[in-house]
Amino acid sequence: MQSNRTFLRVTMLSAFIVLTGCASGTMLSTQALQEGHAPSDGTYTLILYGGQNVYDYETIAILDRSDDPYTILPFGAPFHYRVIREVSAADALRQGDSLMNDLNGYQAMERRGISGPDKTLIGYELRPLFAPLFTGRHSDALTTSYLLGADNSITVYVSLKDSVMDSRHREDGDSSNAE
Question: Could you give the count of Cα atoms lying within 13 Å of 133 in the half-sphere of its Cβ?
Fold first, then answer.
């Protein structure tokens, strides 16, 4: 069972490296938003990524503004995410919170803005923050990367931080990563 997980992680990491190394485009940035900052009114395409079970720490909600020329698409198996179009900001926040509420060790939700190439906000991330007991040293367990393609499509890559993966390996009895 452990070798299957290791194979899957190595395969996904290899695919990520090859695709990002060979793909042309611009990397976009995210930034933490101040406490209480809410997404602007309007409609969004809501991407609910992960949430397959209570231990699926690769879980995030992404709000893609409907009124801009960009389309955010997740990199991953189609069964690992859902896309819901024409969702209000309030409903997207509610659904994002609901997605994360059942995660083991979930403490809070962090809101981050996704900046376009001209530094305007083109979307939002709703990221789960966990008790360090569940994810190691970091409460934020995720790494996200946004790659803007030539056709205004944005591919988002979601993965666990290496330190979280290392702590989960040790919990599974894999002592090869122990320090």
Answer: 5
Token representation of residue 92: 């997207």
How far apart are alpha carbons 143 and 120 in whole angstroms? 21
∠ CA 27-130-44, nearest 5°, is: 50
Report the 10 Å Cβ neighbour count for 33.
16
H-run or E-run covering 133: helix 132-135
Q: How many whole angstroms separate alpha carbon 5 and alpha carbon 83?
A: 26
Q: Where are the domains of the chain?
A: 25-177
| Residues whose CB is less than 8 angstroms from the CB of residue 35 and which lie 6 or more positions away in sequence, other chains included | none
Contacts of 142 (CB under 8 A, 6+ apart): 57, 58, 60, 127, 128, 158, 159, 160, 161
pLDDT computed for residue 6 by the predictor: 66
Q: What confidence tens digit (pLDDT) does each residue in 78-124 have? A: 999 999 999 999 999 999 999 999 999 999 999 999 999 999 999 99
